[in-house]
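Below is a filled-in request sheet from our internal design queue. Each sheet records the structural input a requester submitted and the sequence that came back. We keep these sheets so that new team members can see what a complete request looks like end to end.

REQUESTER: design group, bay 2
PRIORITY: normal
MODE: inverse folding
CHAIN LENGTH: 115
BACKBONE (tokenized):
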């Protein structure tokens, strides 16, 4: 159970990640526009180590703005991304519903903090 002190830390941490979600959504490095158009942003070693995900169910914890969640869904996984930042989840949800990615199975949801 969170004490008053840890609640303050959690609120500050969440506020920070909400702010970073907005910044990351505009950042060239995340390149949301390319993901919207189907570009795979996963690293080659991730794809190689995880292997074929077609038809598999995947839960992506701390998905942030959903780029990796959507990329796994584009590879055929039934992917659900969760994050404790409401702003990150809102951006991820928008990404998952965009024209190209909506054909994939990515879903997003907010979650409680994890310690
Ligand atoms: C470095 S980002 C994750 C990046 C992501 N894995 C990706 O593929 O781009 C860390 C994420 O963890 C979330 N987070 C930070 N502290 C958390 C906590 N205590 N409980 C749950 N989620 C937390 C943040 O909202 C943030 O989206």
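RETURNED SEQUENCE:
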């Amino acid at each position: 159970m969170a004490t008053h002190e840890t609640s303050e830390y959690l609120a500050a941490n969440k506020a920070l990640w909400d702010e970073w979600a907005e910044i990351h959504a505009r950042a060239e490095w995340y390149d949301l526009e390319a993901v919207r158009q189907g570009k795979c942003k996963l690293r080659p070693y991730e794809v190689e180590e995880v292997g074929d995900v077609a038809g598999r169910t995947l839960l992506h914890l701390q998905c942030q703005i959903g780029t990796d969640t959507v990329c796994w869904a584009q590879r055929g996984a039934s992917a659900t991304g969760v994050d404790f930042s409401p702003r990150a989840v809102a951006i991820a949800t928008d990404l998952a519903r965009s024209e190209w990615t909506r054909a994939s199975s990515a879903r997003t949801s907010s979650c409680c903090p994890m310690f």
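SHEET NOTES:
- The beta strands are 57-61, 78-83, 107-110.
- The chain has a mean pLDDT of 87.
FILED BY: M.R.
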